[in-house]
Design brief:
- By secondary structure, the protein is an alpha/beta fold.
- Helices cover about 40% and strands about 15% of the residues.
- It contains eleven helices and eight strands.
- The strands form two sheets. The protein has a six-stranded parallel β-sheet with strand order 3-2-1-6-7-8, with helices on both faces.
- Strand 2, helix 8 and strand 3 form a beta-alpha-beta unit.
- Helix 7 packs parallel to helix 11.
- The protein is elongated.
- It starts with 7 loop residues before the first helix and ends with a helix.
- The relative contact order is 0.20.
- It binds 2'-O-acetyl adenosine-5-diphosphoribose (OAD).
- 2'-O-acetyl adenosine-5-diphosphoribose (OAD) binds next to helix 2.
């Protein structure tokens, strides 16, 4: 339970103008969505090689499609959490702000985030596995529909072994390196290149905050590690900024 933000936070944030937030599956855990590596996480019981690689899709497109359809249904039913909403407040407080999310569930947009990049794609979009053309998204079919080129449609997410969307990633690197405040929220910090963004921020002189109930490799680098759930930790950080009249 976090009762108040450590004094170091309002001091670091006092005159900061540029804030970057990186989120991972932990922020959506409070919306009821499973993480990947936390307790009950996807990769604890499923091999990512069978569900989240181009090879897996080539081998069994129906299985991969069905798994993403199922996750999409879960995401549709979920509601943004207080952590998602607190990030929208930060966007209003800091004149320069960027949210970088590894999440594909669309909950940040539904909470109202605007200045954001999705570096692992979005589960509600689809594209052709062969020609890359975007589809209408949200196809309800049980198996992947076909593109006009004849190829199969796939979810527009980044799979293991694939490159991240170049423009989103470039923005993420650039703004991380310029950040004065960088918050890493609900990410295990194990997947590259996302895991290096907080370090780029730190090297650029940012004050690095980590919010995670568990320690991660990022913890050693953080100026402030808050071992708590995203919702409650973000609330106390926002309260401290409000108390400064921001
Ligand atoms: P992980 O599942 O690896 O990590 C989730 C983190 O959230 C863990 O460190 C948990 O301790 C933490 N956590 C759990 N509940 C939390 C809460 N209520 N508040 C704050 N933190 C909480 O998820 P990611 O770091 O997002 O990639 O994983 C990165 C990437 O690996 C994902 O984007 C996905 C996955 O394979 C692709 O699909 C390309």
């Amino acid at each position: 339970m976090v009762e108040a933000a450590p004094a170091i936070w309002p001091k670091a944030a006092a005159r900061a103008r540029r804030c970057v937030v990186l989120t991972g599956a932990g922020i959506s855990a409070e919306s009821g969505l499973a993480t990947f590596r936390g307790p009950g996480g996807w990769w604890r019981n499923h091999d990512p090689q069978t569900l989240a690689t181009p090879q897996a899709f080539r081998k069994n497109p129906g299985l991969v499609w069905e798994w993403y359809q199922w996750r999409r249904e879960q995401a549709k039913r979920a509601e943004p959490s207080s952590g998602h909403r607190a990030i929208v407040v930060l966007e209003d407080i800091f004149p320069e702000f960027l949210l970088i999310t590894q999440n594909v569930d669309g909950l940040h947009q539904r909470a109202g985030s605007r200045r954001m990049v999705e570096i692992h794609g979005n589960i509600f979009r689809e594209k052709c596995f062969d020609c890359g053309q975007s589809g209408p998204g949200c196809s309800e079919t049980k198996s992947p529909p076909r593109c006009s080129c004849g190829g199969l449609m796939r979810p527009d997410v980044v799979w293991f072994g694939e490159a991240l969307p170049a423009e989103a990633l470039e923005t993420a690197w650039r703004e991380s390196a310029r950040a004065e405040i960088f918050l890493a929220v609900g990410t295990s910090g194990l997947v590259q290149p996302a895991a290096s963004l907080p370090l780029a921020a730190k090297q650029g002189g940012a004050f690095l905050v980590e919010i995670n109930p568990e320690p991660t490799p990022l913890s050693n680098w953080a100026d402030l590690s808050i071992r708590a759930k995203a919702g409650e930790a973000m609330a106390v950080l926002v309260d401290a900024l409000r108390a400064q009249g921001r």
